[in-house]
Write a structure and sequence with these properties.
With 309 residues, this protein is mainly alpha-helical. The chain has a two-stranded antiparallel ribbon. Strand 1 and strand 2 form a beta hairpin. Helix 3 packs across helix 12, helix 5 packs across helix 6 and helix 11 runs antiparallel to helix 12. The longest helix has 22 residues. The termini are close together.
């Protein structure tokens, strides 16, 4: 398999400065020093620098879109939905909650192995106390392997589909490689049967469809994602379009089940986002997690944009 990487792109000032600032903000810690993925020198991540995952997670546009798609699919499962909505600050402080989730994803993919393992262990400890019942009385626990399998599957699907739709195409071998790369992190998070191939993911989606259901919470989530100040101010007018792009990626039958039919992109918006996503896939962000991780391994900041996989 040979995937040629596009030429790197550095935006003129002040756009590049704004992007670097947004990347630094993502890695700010609420109760400690800023997360520095450039240290310790030479320590590998859970997945290697030549992985498909490092390519997928470097694209800021597809990360936003894919993350929203993943949450829509998570919220379709009633036990996961209750766990997320009843035990997190999503409704009251969505920006902080989203930043924390984004930081966890970046450390999982790009962080030094020891930091990723410690961070995931902390997530597991916090989730150990998350339990309750759904409105219909079904009990749930956040660390239930069945629910963790679904969360890992939906996250992997959302980010991959967004990247190959709005970043650049990936053939079947690359997609299978991507799912297989996530196996170690999934096990650390407590998932016992996360999909390691596209076929396995499709099988899981098929098996789960009978458990999925619509909920007003899905629309509350979408309203938050359209209006919360998640993106830098100069990108905020595009936020609603990105949310519609995320709806577009939800499988057709699940989208209908959730009542989201007709809420996706218009034709001109889809064409515009594909251009923007291809551009974003070439953006070198020196303060971003991907560039920091490359420097930790002794690679140039633009390594992910100049090599071949």
């Amino acid at each position: 398999m040979d995937m040629t990487v596009s030429r790197p792109l550095v935006l003129p000032w002040p756009l590049q400065g704004w992007l670097d600032g947004a990347a630094r903000q993502l890695l700010e810690s609420e109760d400690g020093p800023r997360v520095d993925l450039s240290q310790p020198h030479g320590e590998p991540a859970l997945v290697p620098a030549d992985s498909i995952s490092w390519q997928v997670f470097k694209n800021p546009l597809s990360l936003f879109v894919g993350g929203v798609t993943a949450v829509l699919l998570e919220l379709a499962e009633p036990r996961v939905r209750s766990g997320v909505w009843d035990h997190s600050s999503f409704r009251t402080d969505p920006v902080t909650r989203l930043r924390r989730t984004g930081q966890a994803a970046m450390v999982t993919v790009y962080g030094p192995r020891s930091a990723a393992q410690a961070m995931i262990a902390g997530v597991r400890r916090r989730h150990g106390g998350v339990r309750g019942t759904t409105p219909d009385g079904t009990a749930y626990e956040a660390n239930d392997p069945e629910l963790l399998n679904w969360v890992q599957a939906t996250a992997a699907f959302g980010f991959l589909e967004a990247y190959r739709t709005y970043g650049r195409p990936l053939d079947a071998a690359a997609r299978d490689r991507y799912y297989a790369e996530g196996a170690e992190a999934a096990r650390l998070y407590g998932a016992t049967d996360a999909p390691a191939s596209e076929q396995r993911l499709n099988d899981m989606f098929g098996a789960m469809r009978g458990q999925l259901e619509a909920s007003p919470i899905v629309f509350e989530f979408l309203d938050i994602m359209r209006t919360a100040p998640v993106l830098p101010w100069w990108l905020r007018p595009a936020q609603a379009i990105l949310v519609r792009a995320a709806i577009d990626l939800v499988p057709d039958d699940i989208r209908r089940l959730l009542g989201l039919g007709g809420r996706g992109l218009r034709g001109w918006e889809r064409a515009l986002l594909r251009r923007a996503g291809a551009l974003a896939d070439r953006l070198v962000i020196p303060s971003g997690p991907a560039a920091q991780a490359c420097r930790r391994l002794g690679l140039p900041s633009d390594y992910l944009y100049t090599g071949r996989l």
